[in-house]
């Protein structure tokens, strides 16, 4: 049904369009697939790997109720990742007559590559759909420029490369919002169906994705045409149709719902409620806090955004304030795509409000506001280009330099994109005080490579809080310091700590006298990982 609707959508597949499509895909893929699977294991990777694997096991054994693995619920990620795992396992079994050992040193990176490639191409497909919609709602120039900026924005790039929820969630929410806008503009059924499909995918990825469902109704309010009579019954039918389609697709793609939908919804609600009540430990303004407050996400945005996006946001805010003053005096303003622009702004504002209501605040939760902001930035650049005819050459040079700066940033930050912080604001050194530099697995491949070069590397015992992020790359044995028995510490060969735990890690402080600093590993030119050697090792 989905493919049928897509094929009925009028898209001109000219050679020029295909060339542009391939070019944009190339720009998007290159920074995402280079060393993919071989460079980083995000902290939650082992968790979602296990969930995705079990998801398909329960699916194949018809134990559908067990496909509920978490309150997130992460179903979309498990479909993509679990499907890739299943295909990889079958291919490996076919060629080697055995099932792959998941954490085996040689096999793991290739298996990880296979999983992440499936995720990257899934997200690419969604963003290509978004670019098509942008070209229809606004113009082709804005669509192309948006796609280039999105492909090179460091924080977006970082999350598209890891096996986690936010990259997929961001793409689904954004394209659902665009389909909602386009439906209320064109009033065609196929766009209503696509809006519902991607809204359901958003919710199935993460419960905060319910925002995509609510945004559909916000679009109805903003896009309402006061000059035309709209029958109440017809509008109500559209609302009910969207709600039905949303519920249908949630039910259709979540096997646990086939067995006990009310029980699953109840478990999701209670699970998320407990997370809301407990908060999440986060470093903010020099202290650890379970609820950093309303300033947290604005600061995260400033420190995690590229300089060009940061400067544009301040410029855009100044322009809006100036424009409001002009409109108040003259009562004149441009109506070109005004409602669509207002909706994009409301998308950003309301999403920030949604994630700010919870005491649990994590930097990556802000990711879904990046595509709409990058879209607004692209639209504004194109409009300036078209209005300032005498300055076109300089505007082109400026945009070229903006893209070049992003390319250089990507090159400099590679492969530790998750550790990226805005250089204009002082980089990781300044970010350490304001939002912290809590590790998410970055920089550990370099540590593992260093350890693997040591004699008898396979016999080395390493203590590290978060061993799942280094274990598959490390030839020796790694243990999590959080769960290890105390009498094992003194027999460990090495102890690895991020800089921010040097003065607070109780286990390290207790056994500090038994270890001596051997090496410091930098992440983006910032001293991050501290490797301590047991004094008994010569």
UniProtKB/TrEMBL annotation:
What InterPro entries would the database entry show? Answer: LipidA_mod_glycosyltrf_83, RgtA/B/C-like
The family database entries (PANTHER family) matched by this protein are listed as:
MANNOSYLTRANSFERASE YKCB-RELATED (PTHR33908), MEMBRANE PROTEIN (PTHR33908:SF11)
| Predominant subcellular localization, coarse grouping | membrane
For membrane topology, the record states: Multi-pass membrane protein
- Can you tell me where the transmembrane regions are? 12-30, 113-135, 165-185, 191-224, 236-258, 295-322, 342-359, 365-382, 394-414
Pfam families, per this entry?
PMT_2 (PF13231)
- Biological process (GO), any one: lipopolysaccharide biosynthetic process
This protein's name: Glycosyltransferase RgtA/B/C/D-like domain-containing protein
Provide the Glycosyltransferase RgtA/B/C/D-like domain boundaries.
117-250
Q: Where in the cell is it found?
A: Cell membrane
Gene Ontology MF: a single term: pentosyltransferase activity
Q: Which UniProt keywords apply?
A: Cell membrane, Glycosyltransferase, Membrane, Transferase, Transmembrane, Transmembrane helix
Instruction: State the GO CC annotations.
Output: plasma membrane
């Amino acid at each position: 049904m989905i493919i049928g609707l897509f094929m009925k959508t009028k898209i001109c597949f000219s050679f020029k369009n295909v060339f542009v499509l391939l070019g944009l895909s190339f720009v998007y893929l290159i920074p995402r697939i280079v060393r993919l699977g071989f460079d980083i294991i995000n902290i939650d990777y082992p968790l979602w790997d296990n969930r995705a694997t079990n998801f398909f096991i329960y699916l194949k054994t018809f134990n559908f109720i067990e496909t509920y693995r978490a309150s997130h619920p992460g179903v979309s990620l498990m479909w993509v990742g679990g499907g890739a795992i299943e295909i990889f396992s079958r291919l490996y079994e076919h060629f080697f007559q055995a099932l792959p050992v998941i954490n085996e040193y040689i096999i793991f990176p290739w298996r990880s590559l296979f999983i992440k490639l499936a995720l990257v191409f899934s997200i690419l497909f969604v963003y290509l759909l978004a670019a098509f919609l942008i070209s229809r709602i606004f113009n082709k120039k804005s669509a192309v420029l948006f796609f280039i900026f999105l492909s090179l924005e460091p924080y977006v790039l970082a999350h598209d490369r890891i096996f986690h929820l936010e990259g997929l969630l961001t793409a689904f929410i954004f394209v659902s919002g665009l389909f909602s806008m386009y439906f209320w503009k064109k009033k065609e059924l196929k766009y209503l169906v696509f809006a519902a499909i991607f809204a359901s995918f958003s919710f199935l990825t993460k419960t905060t994705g319910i925002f995509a469902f609510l945004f559909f109704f916000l679009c109805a309010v903003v896009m309402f045409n006061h000059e035309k009579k709209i029958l109440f019954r017809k509008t109500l039918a559209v609302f009910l149709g969207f709600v039905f389609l949303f519920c249908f697709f949630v039910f259709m793609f979540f096997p646990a719902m086939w067995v006990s939908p009310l029980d699953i919804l109840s478990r999701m609600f209670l699970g998320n409620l407990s997370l809301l009540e407990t908060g999440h430990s986060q470093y903010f303004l020099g202290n650890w806090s379970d609820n950093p407050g309303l300033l947290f996400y604005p600061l995260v945005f400033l420190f995690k955004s590229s300089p060009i996006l940061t400067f544009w946001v301040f410029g855009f805010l100044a322009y809006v304030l100036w424009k409001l003053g002009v409109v108040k005096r003259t009562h004149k303003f441009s109506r070109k795509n005004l409602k669509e622009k207002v909706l994009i702004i409301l998308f950003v504002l309301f999403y920030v409000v949604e994630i700010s209501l919870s005491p649990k605040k994590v930097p990556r939760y802000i990711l879904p506001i990046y595509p709409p902001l990058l879209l607004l930035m692209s639209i504004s650049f194109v409009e300036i280009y078209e209005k300032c005819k005498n300055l076109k050459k300089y505007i082109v040079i400026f945009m070229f330099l903006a893209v070049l700066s992003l390319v250089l940033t990507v090159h400099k930050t590679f492969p530790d994109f998750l550790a990226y912080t805005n250089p204009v604001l002082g980089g990781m050194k300044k970010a350490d005080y304001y939002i912290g530099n809590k590790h998410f697995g970055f920089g550990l491949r370099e540590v593992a490579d260093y350890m693997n070069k040591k004699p008898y590397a396979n016999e080395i015992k390493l203590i590290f809080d978060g061993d799942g992020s280094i274990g598959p790359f490390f030839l020796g044995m790694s243990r999590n310091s959080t769960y290890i028995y105390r009498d094992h510490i003194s027999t460990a060969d090495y102890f690895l700590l991020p800089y921010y735990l040097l003065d607070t890690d109780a286990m390290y402080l207790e056994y500090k006298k038994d270890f001596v600093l051997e090496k410091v590993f930098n992440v983006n030119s910032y001293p991050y990982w501290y490797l301590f050697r047991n004094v008994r090792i010569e």
